[in-house]
User: Fold these one by one.
Assistant:
Number 1:
Amino acid sequence: MKHGYVRDCDFVAIFDADFQPEPNFLCRAMPFFIHNPEIALVQGRWRFGTAGVWRIFALNEAGGWKDRTTVEDMDLAVRASLKGWKFVYLGDLMVESVANKLLILMQKVMLWKRIYVIYNFFFVRKIIGHILTSVFYCFVIPATVFVPEIEIPRWGYVYIPTIITLLNAVGTPR
């Protein structure tokens, strides 16, 4: 708004940085200004953020764009409405947001993460736990009898099987 070329314009389209308006956004928004000089803003539909065309005169009369707040678009709209300016909301004029697409993608990723965690929980408990127990009881302990170089400390004979059994028992609700 501080550039010189703005003085030659009557309207300004303002979007959040991650918005992608439809190619015909201005063609659909501008006709509302033609015969309605009291209209300050024509706003498109969005989930969160700024997406609309402002009449520069109304914007300046309301005190201009103030970036001192995180809701500068709402701040400006309130100030403009207090000055008597009117607004048009077009519910069928969509403005897509990259953040919205990213949110949907993150939800899909979270779903796959949950499936992965649940799958691994049951896989480790049902398969790996049994394999580990079998290897310990069927190979490691008998190997200590036949191969004197393999030595398990006395506490290992009690604690390792006990820990494996407790971990399997804790994970099995009854």
Number 2:
Amino acid sequence: MDPAKIREKIGRFRILIIGRANAGKTTILQRVCNTRENPEIYNGAGKKIDVTVLRASTERGEHDIENEMVFRNNPGFVFHDSRGFEAGGESEFEKVKTFIANRSKKTKIRDQLHAIWYCIPMDEESRFFTQGEVKFFSQCDTGNIPVIVLFTKFDALYDIAYGQLKSKGASMEEAEELAPKHAEESFAVGAQLTFLYHSKDIRHPPKCHVCLPNMDKDDAGCESLMERTAGTLDNEALQQLFVSTQQTNLELCMKYAVEKTLSEFFVSTETTSDEGREIAIGRLGRWFPHLWVR
């Protein structure tokens, strides 16, 4: 299917991002959209909300999950924000459940939710899951909407890994170099993931997770988030829309362009003609709508 026609039919890729304040949500969305600007906010009717009005509402503790966040640098994504359940307690949890349920009932795919990113910051000592997080994964059935857990501020675990390596006799230089890998390996077999994917208390585990360290640095990337999200999408049209919309992982565009386009032509006699090759090149190019070739 032509990604350009998919974009015309569906419009934008819609994501709900969940997480408490200071979980790194805004920074991640800026990285995804390759910008440092703040998003523009629109209400459910598509009307832009004045920043001063929005700030006043936030100061009063008001928050509308129906509001849409759009970054001018990549308007192909539309984001909805939930503050996390510790901020609003039971009320916020019910709002999120209702929002997910209502979006799932939308008849047009452009109005449905396409993915959920749940941000869990790792910068708290001995960080485990909060009651609100456990409640979400035990009680909130998202149906066909994939949930990806984003372990943000993952570099906070590097200090712990550094200390462990030092205690085992590693030099300062060795411990500093090996700390990131050691932290990732320890986390992969640790209690958090075991609980998240295998606990009987978790009735609705996420599709997958991704660890995001140092997202505040200038050279930070979110390639792994893009790849994991694309891999969770069962709907081929949505998968094509997501891959061709994101602009941070060129390799991902190339991967899907080859797998979904060239594989069809390698088994076809169309590739033996000049016309066939031009068709193949054209279809490959549709996976890269944000690139211009002179």
